[in-house]
């Protein structure tokens, strides 16, 4: 029986023998964790405890400040983001961008920029006092990476616009991409958190209101939250984007949308809809990509055949088998089992 099955798999490979199409990249949107908040240092005797102090929640209901806001004192904002699980792959991210909504810039003579850092990776999303830094770039702390100097400036866009209005530039994107791929560490970092920090570029404890107010996770609308937008390497055969190639999870979208096109589907088909090569139709080439990846990872040939015939593809005719020189092989396989 095994030989018969393997012969049928060989037949199937020929029957769907189309040119392989490199998989497209996919995108992920990741919002800051609910532990986002700020760290505060005051240039006065604290009423209790030591400085810096951690504020994992925001003042009011939606915002935190970076810079001087409670004179004389300074604050830095820390944003934890959870690393997605894309499987045991190296450098899964193809591009990266951070966006935040600045809704107010201080009314004082604001002349100091805000720098963006990547501080650490940790399985715990909680902010700690060691995350604090305000001062000239770069932060000399070992392991801390300067992502973008002058990420925010006094001339940065500001206002309640319902979405991020400030983003990393091309230099920041590149630095962020490198950091995130390193943090992913071939899959060892999946599920952990990376901590990004907005630091005031001076430590002079200005006595005027010289701060940038940032909308945080507590905001009522998700679209206003700090957000990482990531491009990821699409794993061949992986329709659900979890980094694994499985049956039936990754086959079901192909089956459900078999022979759908962009027109019949009513919108542009995506990999998650079974259109693995993103050519606007779910067909045998998408099945082949899933089949090749699934078998390449040790998947069951019997399940592949079961999946193939569930698509309703007519069984190959004797003439077709003969033309491919496989009819005799299948017959021999059947006689021996």
TrEMBL record:
Protein name: PEP-CTERM protein-sorting domain-containing protein
Signal peptide: 1-25
Keywords recorded for this protein, A-Z: Signal
